[in-house]
Design goal:
The complex is a heterodimer of chains A (286) and B (227).
Chain A (H helix, E strand, L loop, with lengths): L1 H21 L8 H10 L4 H9 L5 H8 L8 H6 L4 H4 L3 H11 L15 E11 L2 E13 L5 E8 L34 H7 L18 H9 L3 E15 L3 E8 L7 E9 L2 H12 L3
Antiparallel strand pairs in A: 1-2, 1-4, 2-3, 4-5, 5-6
Chain B lengths: L3 H25 L35 H22 L6 H13 L6 E6 L2 E8 H9 L5 E6 L4 E2 L3 E2 L5 E15 L2 E23 L2 E17 L6
Parallel strand pairs in B: 1-8
Antiparallel strand pairs in B: 1-2, 3-6, 4-6, 5-6, 6-7, 7-8
């Protein structure tokens, strides 16, 4: 009995000492520190998925293996590291509830890259009437029968765009193989430039079932008829709607701290009604 | 026969070894968040494979590891071309060859986006245009250093039947004139890579071969350049 207490005490001490090393590190200007920052930064949304799900082949596990260090970070800790602590430290109660819910032993919850419960919100800049205009676009990953996937435009947000031409018939694409690849998110969706220049196959990049939603057809017409010209993606944000009760957004935080990269910046627990309301608002471009 | 005292000593030794291992682990690879907690270790859960449906063998009998290694080799080859292009002693023929070689590493129509966290301006360049700009930098000496660690993402199958991945790494660029540092920037580069499978005719037999080509690139300046 006494031995158990000594063991617990020593483990507690060792964790406390480890905490001293791990809390709030700011990187100084040297190559080792830069490398360490690169290792711990969540570099891509793909890596966010890897860490959240604690995948066997994750980058972080690979680094530990390469350093011959046993990987003993539990999934709870990995998920905690995915929060932006500059903004979310005040929400520690909710974070605790969330982490305990998604890592519960009986039915843990994972993110599915190919699932229907996450969306990319792109704030895009277009050239319009010799000036520029900002239009939000919502995209999601869509699976195809060949077990492949692609990013598709599913909604367009409101803007000052007033297209002069109205086409109600969507032209069928001539080549069916042009896509916005599932990894386009990693290069700031620069492939949208190619997609919006591809007028012959423009409809391939839009989810046809959602074409009648407000703003979508007008936006499609404006691109097709060269009324607007895509310049770049100003800002990228991801919305996750998890397990029918958790909503969170993920954004890129570039800073010289280990807690950096693609991190959860907003979270709320909602009812199933609240979740559908959020999804509908997102997809109606509100 | 071991005494109780001996067993206790052995147990305490094991505990101290365990602690020293924990501490040395923290020294070697320091963890990644502001707040870390020692929670329960989750056991026996079914993992979701977010790499599906491209997990397992890829076309051309290529493994995920082979794909990743080849992707990194192509990145290193591209970096090698950049070294030649910024070497003031390189002759025109060598520079032309480096531009051609670097361009051949990319798929047709690849776009390079150059931006900085300190500016709202973003430039989109074709690969050859980017390389020509790089070639014409006017520094007596350029030093480029790349991060030792590269991030290679999961490989994902596109609905077009191609296989895609991402490689991220960091680069520091330093330009010197008159023996002193006159320009320095740090960038994070992310390159999309594609697996290409093709048939090659060898003595009348079609043999399936594969290669990895680079595609779109995002170059993000992470620090304000020192000029």
């Amino acid at each position: 009995m006494a031995k158990t207490h000594v063991l617990k005490f020593l483990i507690f001490i060792s964790f406390s000492v480890c905490h001293h090393h791990l809390f709030g590190q700011v990187i100084s200007n040297n190559d080792n520190a830069k490398e360490k920052h690169f290792i711990y930064e969540v570099k891509q949304i793909d890596e966010f998925f890897e860490r959240f799900n604690d995948e066997k082949g994750s980058f972080i596990r690979g680094v530990y293996k390469a350093h011959h260090v046993k990987f003993n970070i539990p999934r709870q800790r990995l998920i905690r590291s995915l929060f932006n602590y500059e903004n979310m430290s005040k929400d520690s109660v909710m974070i605790n509830k969330f982490v305990s819910d998604v890592t519960k032993k009986k039915k843990p919850i994972y993110l599915d890259f190919y699932g229907d419960d996450w969306y990319a919100e792109l704030t895009c800049k277009f050239k319009y009437n010799s000036s520029s205009i900002v239009i939000p676009i919502i995209m999601k990953i869509e699976m195809t029968p060949n077990k492949g996937s692609k990013w598709m435009i599913v909604a367009v947000g409101s803007s000052n765009l007033k297209s002069k031409i109205v086409v109600t018939e969507i032209a069928q694409s001539k080549v069916k193989s042009n896509i916005i690849s599932p990894t386009s998110s990693g290069t700031n969706f620069v492939s949208l430039k190619r997609a919006f220049d591809d007028k012959e196959n423009l409809s391939d990049y839009f989810e046809s079932a959602y074409m009648k939603r407000s703003n979508m057809l007008e936006f499609y017409n404006a691109i097709l008829n060269r009324e607007i010209e895509f310049l770049d993606v100003i800002k990228l944000k991801y919305h996750f709607l998890l397990a029918g009760k958790w909503i969170f957004t993920v954004e890129d935080f570039i800073r010289e701290e280990l807690n950096s990269g693609w991190l959860i910046n907003h979270m709320e627990k909602v009812s199933s009604f609240g979740m559908e309301n959020y999804r509908n608002k997102l997809l109606s471009g509100e | 026969m071991k005494t109780q005292e001996g067993i206790n000593k052995k147990n305490y030794l094991m505990i101290f070894l365990f602690i020293s291992l924990l501490l040395s682990s923290a020294e070697k690879v320091q963890a990644h968040s502001r707040q870390v907690y020692g929670g329960d270790i989750v056991k026996g859960y079914e993992k979701t494979d977010t790499a599906r449906p491209a997990s397992g063998r890829l076309p051309g009998n290529v493994s995920q590891d082979e794909f990743k290694k080849k992707a990194l080799a192509k990145i290193k080859e591209f970096q090698g071309c950049l070294f030649i292009l910024c070497n003031i002693t390189s002759e025109d023929v060598a520079l032309d060859n480096a531009v051609d070689q670097a361009t051949s590493l990319f798929v047709e129509g690849a776009i390079i986006e150059v931006s900085s966290v300190h500016s709202s301006e973003k430039k989109h360049l074709r690969v050859r245009d980017f390389l020509e700009k790089f070639r014409n930098l006017h520094y007596e000496r350029v030093v480029i250093t790349f991060s030792h660690v590269d991030y290679v993402s999961n490989i994902r199958k596109g609905s077009d039947g191609k296989y895609y991945g991402l490689v991220s790494f960091e680069q520091t660029f330093r330009g010197h004139n008159d023996g002193r540092l006159v320009y320095e920037d740090e960038t994070k580069k992310t390159t999309e890579v594609q697996l290409i499978v093709y048939d090659r005719n060898l003595r009348g037999n079609a043999i399936q071969q594969w290669d990895v080509l680079l595609s779109d690139v995002e170059i993000l300046g992470t620090k304000r350049p020192k000029a």
